Fold this protein.
Amino acid sequence: MPPPTATAKKTTKRAPKPAPAPEVFKAAASKGKPAARIVVGDCREILPTLPEVKKQQLDLVFADPPFNWARDYDRDRTGEAWDDSAMTEQEYLGFTYDWIDACHAGLRDGGALWINIPDDWAAEIVVHCKRDLKMTMVNWCVWHYRFGQNTKSRFINSKVHALYFVKGNAGKRTWNADPILETSDRRAIYADARTETKRDGVPPGLRVPMDVWYGKYWGRIQGNNKERRHKHDNQLPEVYLERVVLACSNAGDTVLDPFTGTGTTGVVARALGRKYVGTEYARLNAERALQRIKAGPVRELGTSRGMSTAIHAPRRGSSPNAP
Ligand SMILES: C[S@@+](CC[C@H](N)C(=O)[O-])C[C@H]1O[C@@H](n2cnc3c(N)ncnc32)[C@H](O)[C@@H]1O
C-alpha cells in the first residue's frame, strides 16, 4: 500500500525581521557649527554602514580604543557597557585589526588615522598599519603624563602612544603647522637671538611641537580637573584633540571617532568647524557625549597655543613665554 500522500501544511513564509536601526544621537548644524552625530553600537558593525565610510569621505579618524585593561567605561552599568577585560591577547588583536580596517576603508586618499594606544599593543598596530595596510607612518608621538599608576616592581608607566598614519598618497595629507606652533626652548630658556631671525618659514621664536606631548592642560583627566566628566574612565584632554584636529584637518572636513567615550574628539572637532561622526557601544556614553558636544569645550580653544613646554627654568633673563 502506498504511503498516504502527505498533505502539504499551509505555511506563510515570512521574511526575516530586519535588524532594528541603531540609535543615533544628533546635533544639527547651527550657528556656524556643523552637524554631529553618534551612532550607538559596535563600531565594527556600524562603520561599514555609514555613508561617509562607504563613500570614503573621512578626512581624519581619531581612535582611542578600549585597552583590554578592565576599565569601567560606563560606571552606571546600564547593561550595554563594553566589557574591557573579556578578550585573550589574540582576540583583542583580532578586534583591533577589524576596527582599524573598517576605519581605513572609510578614509579618503591621504586621510589621516590617529591611534591612542599603550605599550601593550603599539608594536602590533604599527606593523598592521604599515605592512598589511601599506599606510605611511608620519609620526610616532608620545603623550606623556606625570601621574601614572604607582608601582615598585617596574618602571611607572607615564605615557601612551599617539600613532599618526596616512592612507594611500601621503602627498595628499592635510598638515597645518601654523595653528599648533609653540614657543621654542631657544626663546624660552636661552633668549637666543638666532631664533628671532631664523628663516625656516616658522615665525620667530616658535616651533612645531616635538613628538613627546606634555605641559599645562596635558595631564590625565582625573580628580578635580575641570574637564572631567563623571562616570567615565579614560577621558583625553581637550588640548590633545585640539592639536590633532587642527594639524590634520580643515574646517568643513569630516572627522570620525569610532570610540566616542565622553566625546572629546567630537567636542573639539565641532567647535573647530569640522563635521563629526562617532560610534559608541554604550548608549549612555553616546547620549552624554552628545550633550557635551553641544555644550562645547570646557577650556577656550587656543588657550595653550604658542605656550612654552620648556622643562628648564629660563637662563640669561628670558621668561618662558616672552614674545
Ligand atoms: C577609552 S574610551 C574613549 C575615551 C574618549 N577618547 C574620551 O576622551 O572620552 C573607549 C570607549 O569606547 C567604547 N567602546 C568599546 N568598545 C567599543 C566598540 N566595539 N564599538 C564602539 N565603542 C566601543 C567604550 O564604551 C568607551 O566609551
Remarks:
- Residues 89-106 form the longest helix (18 residues).
